[in-house]
Amino acid sequence: MRFLNLLIIFIFLVSHVKAQIDPELLRQAPKNTDSLKLNMDAVYDRPFLHLGKLPVALGGYVEANHQYLGENGVTEGHQFQMRRLTLFVSSSISKRIKFLSEIEFEDGTKEINIEFASVDFEFAPLLNLRGGIVMNPIGAFNQNHDGPKWEFVDRPISATQLLPATWSNVGFGVYGKKYTNNWAYAYEVYLTNGFDNKIIENTENHTSLPATKDNKDRFEESFNGSPLLTGKVALRNSKIGEIGFSYMGGVYNKFEEDGLTLDKKRRVNVFAIDFNTNLPKLNTYISGEWAWVTVNVPETYTEQFGRKQQGGFIDIVQPVLKRSMFGFEKATLNAALRLEYVDWNKGTFRSTGGNISDHVYAIVPAISWRPTPQTVIRFNYRYNWQKDLLGNPPSRLAGFQFGFSTYF
Q1: 163 is in which domain, residue-wise?
Q2: What are phi and psi of 279, to 5 degrees?
Q3: What is residue 351's predicted lDDT score, i.e. its pLDDT?
Q4: What pLDDT is attached to residue 14?
Q5: Phi then psi for 115, rounded to 5 degrees?
Q6: CB count in 10 Å sphere of residue 198
Q7: Which of the residues in the chain have pLDDT under 70?
């Protein structure tokens, strides 16, 4: 906490000084200037400010909202939420060594997390070493999750309740990119600490990868001594778009202790595919991802703990108006739509042969206004319908959300 307090004081002092100096001394921190951006570039593709000759660059984003939601006719009324405040600190230690950290304060200060804190050593375009707290590159949203980049108040259900959103661990790995004409090729491979028994021993009473985020000890020790492997390959064409294939897997249970065998090794494996593209002429932006999860659940567990899960989302964003609005010269008005689906228990009951439900559908139409590309004001209508394990009539949630998110 002393480190966080000092960091906040430092940022306050820098912002105070910034107001008194010549604006010419402020400049954007160096970043990759290649036009073919990939999701893996999101960690550095952010607006940083470098003040004079200070050795660090600063940035961040904030998001807050109001919502009025009701489930099966019951509502908690009007709710105002301060979802998160995120701070970035980066430094070019030398020409080929750089550091970046991302610290997030959620729901006020209910949760404080270091989501990224790594040092990159650049040896060659196709060979770079990264070590520290790394963001496991499963799917696209886990890496490219900043609030100002999205037209929707809520993060995707598949990214938060199927996959553990902003899932990061301590470890090391390599990554690289290559550009050829209109193509970009990239890869990432990391070995990190991983999951634990909370995948199946949690208050959700079903198989849940996000539940293991409660284990804060993963930043200082591995739960079972077995590393988690995460890897991704991505391909982007300047005219077509980007597609990525990723894998994350490892042993999640405590299979031995002090030389004694407790259980066999039980694995969790996740495969994901993501894509994004811009349709020509209309400039329609489409992005989405889909993930498949398999978990080796002990036979002693009931069927409410899914052994197979899957889900994903697709976003469609259509610019409607681009012009000067309310004094903002390059403002954009967008219409957007998100479609979501998650099945936490893909399969059938052994006793009856009937389908296991435990799934949710969601549709979220949205209108967003961007006074600048780095700021979004968004209005959403959310409608979810979710069935329980036995397939009873669905629980329905609906309501309005209004909020903003901006880099600073």
Answers
A1: 2-407
A2: -70, 135
A3: 81
A4: 40
A5: -90, -20
A6: 19
A7: 1-35
Determine the distance from the C-alpha atom of residue 182 to the mean position of all C-alpha atoms in its chain, rounded to a whole number. 27
Q: How far apart are CA 203 and CA 387, in angstroms?
A: 19
Mean of the per-residue pLDDT values for the chain?
Answer: 91
Q: Which pLDDT value is given to residue 35?
A: 62
Give me the number of domains the chain comprises. 1
Provide the pLDDT for residue 5: 52
- Residue 115, by phi and psi: left (phi above 0), alpha (psi -120 to 50) or beta? alpha
Which CATH number do you get for residue 46?
2.40.160.10
CA neighbours within 13 Å on the CB side: how many for 12?
A: 6
The three state secondary structure string of the chain is CHHHHHHHHHHHHHHHHHCCCCHHHEEECCCCCCCCCCHHHHHCCCCCEEECCCCCEEEEEEEEEEEEEEECCEEEEEEEEEEEEEEEEEEEEECCEEEEEEEEEECCCCEEEEEEEEEEEEEECCEEEEEEEEECCCCCCCCCCCHHHCCCCCCCHHHHHHCCCCCEEEEEEEEEEEEECCEEEEEEEEEECCCCHHHCCCCCCCCCCHHHHHCHHHHCCCCCCCCEEEEEEEEEECCCEEEEEEEEEEECCCCEECCEECCCCCEEEEEEEEEEEECCCCCCEEEEEEEEEEECCCCCCCCCCCCEEEEEEEEEEEEEEEEEECCEEEEEEEEEEEEEEEECCCCECCCCCCECCCEEEEEEEEEEEEEECCEEEEEEEEEEEEECCCCCCCEEEEEEEEEEEEEC
User: How many angstroms from the chain centroid is the CA of residue 380?
Assistant: 20
User: Is the distance from CB of 309 to CB of 344 less than 8 angstroms?
Assistant: yes
Q: Which residue has the tokens 């997030």?
A: 104
pTM: 0.89
Largest CA distance in the chain: 74
Query: Is 317 within 8 Å of 149 (Cβ atoms)?
Result: no
Q: Which two tokens stand for residue 268?
A: 């969790």
